[in-house]
Design brief:
Layout lengths: L8 H14 L2 H63 L7 H11 L9 H8 L14 H12 L5
Helix pairs in contact: 3-4, 4-5
């Protein structure tokens, strides 16, 4: 025979039965209805969450499709611009790169005293066409003076 001070499983079971028997009918009924309502709300929220996830997946796929389409259009327009760029190497818009390519191509034809002329080919000496934020007029004047009177070694 073993004595214990605390409740055992049989005491817990008896207390639950006592509570259920002592509970009024209206409270028991309300508790059951509340439990059903909560289960229904949980089911509805899970259903709504699933619908939102499906909608989000569809919108994301559409967004990726639009982005891919924009990327393809941009690639195509860049290819067309590249072709136009290399067909007209000395156009105003692309003069810098064309001049640099000409500079590299003329690298074999280096004559003493033509260095500054070759550098000047890479520079834009028109002050109004320059859209830079910094003032480069001093550097421009130095390059022009060196082009006109190159340094002698």
């Amino acid at each position: 025979f073993k004595e214990s001070n605390g409740p055992t499983n049989s005491y817990v079971a008896i207390s639950q039965v006592d509570r259920l028997q002592s509970e009024p009918e209206s409270i028991r009924k309300w508790r059951e209805e509340q439990k059903e309502r909560l289960e229904q709300l949980d089911a509805n929220s899970q259903k709504q969450e699933a619908e939102w996830k499906e909608k989000a997946i569809k919108e994301l796929e559409e967004w990726y499709a639009r982005q891919d389409e924009k990327l393809q259009k941009t690639k195509a327009s860049n290819r067309v611009a590249d072709e136009a760029f290399y067909k007209q190497p000395f156009a105003d818009v692309i003069g810098y790169v064309a001049a640099e390519e000409a500079f590299v191509n003329d690298a074999e034809d280096v004559f003493p005293g033509t260095e500054w002329e070759r550098v000047a080919q890479l520079c834009d000496f028109n002050p109004k066409s320059s859209k830079q934020a910094k003032d480069v007029s001093r550097m421009r004047s130095v390059l022009i003076s060196l082009k006109q009177a190159p340094l002698v070694r």
